[in-house]
Amino acid sequence: MAIEGPFWRAVAVFRVASLAYAAVLMAQHRGYEEPVIGWLVLGVMALWTAGATFAYSIPALRGRPLLAIDLLVTMACLLSSPYVQGAQQGATGTLPVPATWVAAPVLAWAVYAGRRAGAVAAAVVAACDLWLRVRTPEAPILINGTVLLFLSGVVVGHVARLAKQAEERMQRAIEMEAAQRERDRLARDLHDSVLQVLALVQRRGRQIGGEAAELGRLAGEQEAALRQLVASGPPPAKGATDLRSLLLRHGSPDVTVSTPATPMVLPTAVAQGAAAAVGAALDNVRAHCGAGAKAWVLAESGEGTVTVSVRDDGPGIPDGRLEEARAGGRMGVAGSIRGRVEELGGTVSIVSVPGQGTEVEITLPAATPGPLRSGRR
After folding, report:
1. What's the pTM?
2. What's the burial of 1, exposed, middle or buried (CB within 10 Å: 0-12/13-18/19+)?
């Protein structure tokens, strides 16, 4: 990712500065009885600094093999310190030959894989450093360097991971904005051409009647479907479904579907069950209210719930009709609507007034429900 570039450049600058610091310590001959070997180690460090800086600048080379080699080279340079320090090993104020250069692979692991990887790399380097100190019992064992290694690995890894997540979110927002612009452009083009033609065919078909009326009806359905396709938003996350997209498929000249402007994201099984229950309610409208009956589907989001109501202008349901149908084995409302919704953890209420139509209200939890309850009522 582009956001990683500044982090890798910062690690490269740290390598160079730490190498210069180690060279200054070697030039002062502080605690190094074998400076010739020390300069050889510094030469290896300089070569690896140049090679690692170049390798990390190429995204394709950044990976665990390079990071592992980086850690091994650093450990080898660190473990060479006793041969350079000689009898001065462990003396107060004496640092290992690489000095602060040992923190470079810790920072690299942290940038690449986050705070956990940074902490593990810090533990490996710290273990080598502590092992060298334990070999000289007369010298005090200081853990200041170990603490700093862990802090740098964890903090830098955490910041790098946050930066990557922020870049991913920004990229997602840019893609959604681009998709919305393309959707708006398509909407304009469709409105100026296809949708106007379909609307004209629908009107003329109704005026002419006969077979032309059927063509007009089909044109109207396709016009509604195209409008819904253009108006739909970006797809939700995997395993979830925007209930609006499922409900809008029921739209037609005789069925008006109204949904919020914002997504109504539900677990896929819940969204599909709710849409199926709405479809069953609309089937009842077509079967029992006669040709030309109108229906309205309204979806709303509440606090922790989603409510979908299906209302029609039919003759209504006579008192006792539902109980009579259930007793006669006709399970349309009881099974296809009420039973399906209750399995999803929701509720169904039916209000019908003879001569004034029927309203079926479906209420579902917005969160993922627990295990589905068996048995339909």
Report:
1. 0.50
2. exposed
